[in-house]
Amino acid sequence: MLVSSNMQPLFRSSVAISSLALLVSACATGPTAPSAASSETALDPQSNYVVEAQVRGRPVRLKVDPGAPFFVLLNDKIAKELRLVGTKAATLAVGPLRLKGSTRSEKFTIGGVTRSRPVMWVKGQSHAEADGFINPANMPGGRVTLHLRPAKSGEQQIRLPMRFDRQRGLYYEFDYGGQLILTRFTLADSLTTATGAAASVIAKRRSGIWDGGPFVHPVRFGVSRPVRRMVLGKTLSVNGFPLNDFAVRVQDDRGSYLLPDKEISSEDDEDGIIVTGKHKRSYGAPHFWLMIGSDDLSRCSSISYDNNARQMLLSCSIADS
């Protein structure tokens, strides 16, 4: 089963996520104990955003991240120890690369609340931080809040309507001049990254130029891809959230879209010119994705996802660089 190059598996059906309730104190240190009687869970940096769960009677540690896929992503080793058997196969696309995964539905108990959730694991994949990753949209309760740092005076609230589906995970449809750029948020990657097609349309309107040469960066599922830093001459506002630069996946999901041919000049290159994408080469079908990483999210004191309203709330110091 082929997945889109945004790295989420494609399936024909969707699963509705039940709204549950949790009891959590927003000011507690570390993960708080959820209860079926209330509505919020809050995690802080000391917890590393990890929650305790049980699967088939075994404890597992799941890291909460809004950039996680629709599926609860388990380490392959844990899936084997749990003796999970996939009911559907999935092919994950990371640029031109393909990874084979297995999926099934499994019951998770988090804070005394047990619900079935879709599970995925990829052969050989392992994450040292936890036994797996879970999207806040898969957590029980009305709201999940990730506290990043102490709040500052003058912070602005950015509220984004979100979608959550099997194909794409949790994302915001950013309408950029008539072109939808599907935007996600993650704490798992320090860099903000964009596919080639998304970078092309942004660079054209925001005066994007290159800063430095290509380098290799892990983008998803342990797969590293060539990227290059792009600096914008005009700030890009994602519904109020500012971006001034990001890493472009120069070989991925570009289609026929062209990238800039100019870069920041240096002593060794007075012209500052580099030709990009003007020769015939296949860059796959164009996909318009933007993944905002933890470096840019550091301007925010918290990220909240409201399962009931299907909204993400960012509390950020917009004026800070």
Summarize the structure.
This protein is mainly beta. It is built from three helices and 21 strands.
Overview of this structure, please?
The protein is mainly β and 321 residues long. The chain has two domains: 40-144, Cathepsin D, subunit A, domain 1 (Beta Barrel); 156-316, Beta Barrel (Cathepsin D, subunit A, domain 1), CATH 2.40.70. The chain is built from three helices and 21 strands. The chain has helices spanning 76-81, 196-206, 294-297, and strands at 40-43, 50-55, 58-64, 72-74, 88-94, 97-110, 113-122, 132-134, 143-147, 156-161, 163-165, 169-176, 179-185, 193-195, 208-210, 215-220, 223-238, 241-249, 289-292, 300-306, 311-316. Strands 11, 12, 13, 14, 15, 16, 17, 18 and 19 form a nine-stranded mixed sheet that branches. Strands 2-3-8-4-7-6 form a six-stranded mixed barrel. The chain has a five-stranded mixed sheet with strand order 1-9-20-21-10, with no helix packed on it. A hairpin with a 4-residue loop joins β20 and β21 (311-316). The longest helix has 11 residues, at 196-206. The chain starts with 39 loop residues before the first strand and ends in a 5-residue tail after the last strand.
At the fold tier of CATH, the topology name of the largest domain is Cathepsin D, subunit A, domain 1
Please, how many helices?
3
Largest sheet: 9 strands, mixed
Helix/strand class:
mainly beta
Low-confidence stretches: 1-37, 267-275
Helix content: under 10%
- CA-atom Rg in angstroms: 20 Å
Order of helices and strands: EEEEHEEEEEEEEEEHEEEEEHEE
CATH class of the largest domain: Mainly Beta
Estimate nothing, just give the exact number of structural domains. 2
